[in-house]
C-alpha cells in the first residue's frame, strides 16, 4: 500500500540521518556520541531499551540523534563546522555553478577541499583511513583486452564455508539469508517506490528480485559481501544527476579500476562524507510531503509505519505497517458495511 511505502521510506530516511550525524558532530564518531548519551539523563532509558526491547535498535539511534542535535556544546568544533558547512555547500552550491558543469560537481569540490584541508592540517576528526591495496596480478581477462581484478572462487570452497559453523547448521544459515533477502527487498521497494512517486520512474518487483538475486550469486563466487539496496546511495546518485541504469555500470567500473588510486581518499574527513549523505535526505525527513498531506486512515497508517520503522528496524517497521493497514482497513470496511445496512 502507498501509505505503508511512504511511511517506510520516511522511517528509513530517519535512520540514514541518525547514522550520518555521529561522524559529523563528533571527532570520535559513534563511540563518542554513545558514551555521551550513556552519561546523560537519558542513558538509563537507552540501557533499559536495549535490555527489554533488543529488537528496537532504531530507538537507541533516534535517542542518540536527538541528543546530538540538542546538545551543540558537546560537538567537536572543527568536525562539526566542516560538517555543517559541507552540508550547506552541497545543498546550495549547485544553483550557483556554471551551467556547463555537470550535476554533482559540488560534491566533488566539497570532497576535494575537505581532503586537502585534512592533509594540510592536523584534522582531529575521523577520516576514511587506509584503503587496502590491490594485487596487480589478480583477476581475469575478458577477450584479452580488459582485465577485471576479481578472483572467481572454486565451487567446493563455497560449500565449505566456515560461516555455517557460526550459525550452527546450514538450515539456520539459509533462514538468516532468507531474512536478509526479505529486508533487502524491503529497502529496495522503499527506494524504488519513492522514486516512482517523486520522479515518475516505474519499477518492477520481479525485475528487482531477479537483479538482486543474480548480483548476490556473483558476489558469492567472488568472495564479496551480499549485494543490497541503499537508500543513502540511491538518493546521493539522484542528487548528482544520474538518470539511467548506466550509472550503476559506471560506478561499478570506477570502483574496480580506480581502486589502485583510492589512497588519495585516505585523509578524507568522515564529516564531509556524512554531510553529502545528509544533504540528500534531510529535506524528506524534515518535510515529508506524503505523510503531511495524508488524511484519515492514511495519516495513521503512514505515520505509524514511519515511526515504527525509525524506532525498531526496517523489517519490524514494515511488518507493523502492514498489520496496521490490514486492521484499519478492516475496521473502515466494516464501518462502511454497517452504514449501508443502516441506510
Give a structural overview.
- With 343 residues, the protein is an all-alpha fold.
- The chain has helices at residues 2-25, 29-38, 43-52, 57-70, 77-92, 105-120, 155-159, 163-167, 170-199, 205-222, 231-239, 246-257, 270-286, 289-293, 296-311, 314-342, and strands spanning 140-142, 146-148.
What's the SSE blueprint?
Layout: H1 2-25, H2 29-38, H3 43-52, H4 57-70, H5 77-92, H6 105-120, E1 140-142, E2 146-148, H7 155-159, H8 163-167, H9 170-199, H10 205-222, H11 231-239, H12 246-257, H13 270-286, H14 289-293, H15 296-311, H16 314-342
Antiparallel strand pairs: 1-2
Helix pairs in contact: 1-2, 1-4, 1-9, 1-13, 1-15, 1-16, 5-6, 5-13, 11-13, 15-16
What portion of residues is helical?
Answer: 55-70%
Please give the number of β-strands: 2
Terminal Cα separation, in Å? 30 Å
Query: Which structural class matches the secondary elements?
Result: mainly alpha
How big a fraction of the residues is strand? Answer: under 5%
Radius of gyration: 23 Å
The description of the largest β-sheet is: 2 strands, antiparallel
Can you list the strand order of the major beta sheet?
1-2
Unreliable segments (pLDDT under 50, ≥5 consecutive)? none
Question: Mean pLDDT across all residues, rounded?
Answer: 84
Order of helices and strands: HHHHHHEEHHHHHHHHHH
For this structure, the quaternary state is: single chain
Number of helices: 16
Backbone shape: globular
Amino acid at each position: 500500500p502507498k501509505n505503508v511505502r511512504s511511511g517506510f521510506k520516511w522511517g528509513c530516511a530517519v535512520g540514514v540521518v541518525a547514522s550520518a550525524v555521529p561522524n559529523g558532530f563528533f571527532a570520535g564518531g559513534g563511540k563518542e556520541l554513545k558514551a555521551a548519551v550513556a552519561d546523560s539523563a537519558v542513558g538509563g532509558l537507552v540501557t533499559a531499551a536495549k535490555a527489554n526491547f533488543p529488537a528496537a535498535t532504531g530507538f537507541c539511534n533516534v535517542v542518540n540523534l536527538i541528543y546530538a542535535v540538542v546538545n551543540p556544546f558537546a560537538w567537536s568544533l572543527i568536525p562539526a563546522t566542516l560538517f555543517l558547512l559541507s552540508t550547506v555547500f552541497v545543498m546550495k552550491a549547485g544553483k550557483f555553478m556554471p551551467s556547463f558543469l555537470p550535476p554533482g560537481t559540488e560534491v566533488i569540490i566539497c570532497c576535494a577541499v575537505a581532503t586537502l584541508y585534512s592533509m594540510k592540517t592536523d584534522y582531529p576528526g575521523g577520516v576514511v583511513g587506509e584503503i587496502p591495496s590491490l594485487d596487480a596480478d589478480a583477476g581475469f581477462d575478458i577477450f584479452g583486452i580488459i582485465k577485471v581484478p576479481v578472483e572467481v572462487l572454486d565451487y567446493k570452497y563455497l560449500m565449505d564455508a566456515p560461516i555455517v559453523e557460526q550459525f550452527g547448521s546450514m538450515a539456520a544459515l539459509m533462514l538468516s539469508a532468507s531474512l536478509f533477502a526479505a529486508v533487502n527487498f524491503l529497502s529496495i521497494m522503499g527506494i524504488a517506490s519513492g522514486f516512482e512517486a517523486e520522479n515518475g520512474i516505474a519499477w518492477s518487483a520481479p525485475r528487482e528480485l531477479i537483479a538482486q538475486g543474480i548480483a548476490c550469486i556473483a558476489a558469492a563466487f567472488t568472495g564479496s559481501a551480499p549485494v543490497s539496496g541503499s537508500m543513502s546511495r540511491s538518493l546521493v546518485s539522484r542528487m548528482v544527476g544520474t538518470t539511467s541504469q548506466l550509472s550503476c555500470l559506471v560506478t561499478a567500473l570506477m570502483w574496480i579500476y580506480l581502486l589502485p588510486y583510492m589512497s588519495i581518499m585516505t585523509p578524507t574527513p568522515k564529516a564531509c562524507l556524512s554531510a553529502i549523505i545528509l544533504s540528500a535526505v534531510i529535506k524528506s525527513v524534515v518535510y515529508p510531503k506524503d505523510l503531511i498531506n495524508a488524511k484519515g486512515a492514511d495519516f495513521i497508517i503512514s505515520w505509524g509505519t514511519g515511526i515504527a520503522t525509525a524506532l525498531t528496524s526496517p523489517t519490524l517497521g514494515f511488518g507493523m505497517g502492514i498489520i496496521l493497514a490490514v486492521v484499519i482497513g478492516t475496521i473502515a470496511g466494516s464501518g462502511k458495511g454497517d452504514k449501508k445496512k443502516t441506510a
